[in-house]
Design the sequence.
């Protein structure tokens, strides 16, 4: 999957009506609640939702707003930050594999194993040979999940550099967002072009078994609509049924 991010818009199509789309999103979230309940009851499939994006792309808000209607018993969220000393003693997928969903569950990764071929590549913390090896390991890992009846949905939140700056600056002025502020986020903007190239390499090398969905993310209402639509369509594709009485 070859992609040039600079050629892809970060905005919703002009013809799309915002208010109508937001109403459709409400319907999708009601449907998602029903389907998640069915997924949990049938206990045959599992869904892993991976959400990636640079700082300020809206990962936290996406998780909160798209999945707000689902039953917490059937959905868990995992955020992968800097590896702990214990995690560093293992292979890079060790901490990830522990948190994949069991049957009947939806697990959401807010950042994921892809950090190990993004941040580390941008900052040259590992060699290109290791990055290439990790691409292969990631593909094999995702195939293992798929072969085990876990569907993997991967979303990249495609935000513009201008919108990202606006959101990062809000963290310095909006008291409800100050807790998110990290001065390192501003410093990382200096590596914008390197991050874009690193993501493009991920799309090209790690779409073998689970496709990437590039989601325009400058407008939250559109971003959430696209992701909710894909999640609902995926769950509907399982053709699930409630189990009958146990004999």
Sequence:
């Amino acid at each position: 999957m070859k992609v040039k991010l600079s050629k892809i818009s970060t905005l919703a199509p002009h013809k799309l009506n915002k208010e109508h789309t937001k109403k459709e999103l409400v319907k999708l979230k009601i449907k998602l609640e029903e389907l998640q309940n069915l997924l949990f009851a049938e206990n045959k499939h599992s869904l892993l939702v991976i959400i990636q994006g640079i700082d300020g792309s809206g990962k936290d808000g996406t998780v909160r707003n798209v999945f707000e209607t689902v039953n917490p018993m059937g959905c868990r969220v995992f955020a992968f930050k800097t590896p702990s000393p214990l995690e560093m003693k293992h292979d890079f997928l060790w901490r990830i594999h522990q948190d994949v969903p069991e049957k009947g569950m939806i697990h959401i990764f807010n950042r994921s194993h892809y950090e190990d071929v993004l941040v580390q590549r941008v900052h040259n913390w590992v060699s290109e040979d290791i990055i290439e090896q990790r691409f292969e390991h990631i593909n094999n890992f995702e195939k293992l999940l798929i072969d085990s009846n876990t569907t993997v949905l991967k979303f990249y939140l495609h935000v513009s550099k201008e919108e990202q700056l606006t959101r990062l600056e809000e963290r310095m002025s909006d008291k409800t967002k100050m807790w998110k502020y990290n001065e390192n986020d501003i410093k990382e903007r200096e590596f914008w072009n390197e991050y874009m190239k690193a993501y493009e390499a991920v799309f090209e090398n790690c779409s073998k078994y689970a496709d990437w969905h590039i989601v325009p993310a400058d407008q939250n209402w559109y971003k959430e609509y696209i992701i909710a639509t894909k999640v609902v369509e995926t769950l509907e594709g399982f053709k699930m049924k409630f189990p009958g009485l146990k004999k």
The two ends are 48 Å apart (CA to CA). The domain at 18-236 is CATH 3.40.50.300 (Rossmann fold). Residues 18-42 form the longest helix (25 residues).
